[in-house]
């Protein structure tokens, strides 16, 4: 999935203020062949997932610049394909900002077991992207669905998806979380079951529905021809069963950009490596960091820098931030929440990486942030 099919505004009403979008989901488990024609950029162009600590830093920077009404976990993958980053992000925000409204945007696959946890964290609203009511329609809408770690035949996978979406609505409503259903309107594909889908969602307890015009994900911008009259009829049919959210009047969103431009004052990346060949150390294990810069088409090593010694709690990571003040990122197998947060506060991103040092450094220097969830044709 998973840029939402419409902006992730709240199902229970639009509280004045900005919504901060936090893309912390690293994995996809649903890939649709369509995206919203209203979006400026499709899911495939979103940047990579933020670490929960980076997401918290991004949120707090936004809050420092002006009022924020809500934080919404959405993308770049599916928040419940790997639920830990999602729940960790929400828990960190709730601990630091107990009054802030929280939301999540999801396909619904894998969500139901976590509904109670979402409610305990004070999540007020969840947006579920549901684009089909029947298996036959779902087989046309989705390229692939992975209920587990392996791809299964599409006709079986979409059946699991539809069941999971219904279970998600039931589970969320049961614990008091409002549900907005986002539907992509796809003429000739799902247009004949929009009202049935709205009626079904209403019967499960959903609070609102949003219909957005769709275009194939591979279509160039502006290539989609929207049948405005048909879309209007579908919206009126859906509105007979659920309050309608208008996607043409979105709330104001703040979200990380996908690919950061090169900061000339930070031409380097640092790499945590034990042998100089592979990215193979946890950040806290690194006694020496190799510094790389771009040289032509590939990264080349500039020097080695001795990392601050272990111990010292947060002072260690403040010292590391000073040491790497000319670096845009540090590459490591993993890192704890505190160093990720502190380095992010100083404009240094921790990128989880592995494999060849030069290849990883080249990717970080040329692509900005490393790999991202993708949605290829299977």
Descriptive key words:
about 30% helix, TIM Barrel, Nucleotidyltransferase, domain 5, 5-stranded mixed sheet, about 375 residues, 2 domains, 10 helices
Helicity, in percent? 25-40%
Tell me the number of helical segments per DSSP (H or I, 4 or more residues long): 10
At the fourth level of CATH, the homologous superfamily of the largest domain is: Aldolase class I
As residue ranges, the low-confidence spans are 40-45, 368-374
Strand elements, count: 18
Q: CA-to-CA gap between the ends? A: 14 Å
Mean pLDDT: 87
Overall outline: elongated
**Strand portion, in percent?**
15-25%
Question: Would you tell me which CATH topology of the largest domain applies?
Answer: TIM Barrel
**Element order, helices and strands?**
EEEHEHEHEHEHEHEHEEEEEEHEHEEH
Do you know the CATH architecture of the largest domain? Alpha-Beta Barrel
**Total of domains:** 2
Report the sheet with the most strands, covering strand number, pairing sense and barrel closure. 9 strands, mixed
Give me the secondary-structure category: alpha/beta
Q: For the record, what CATH class of the largest domain applies?
A: Alpha Beta
Query: Gyration radius, to the nearest Å?
Result: 22 Å
Brief overview, please?
The protein is α/β, with parallel strands linked by helices and 378 residues long. Helices cover 30% and strands 24% of the residues. α1 packs parallel to α2, α6 packs parallel to α7 and α8 crosses α9.
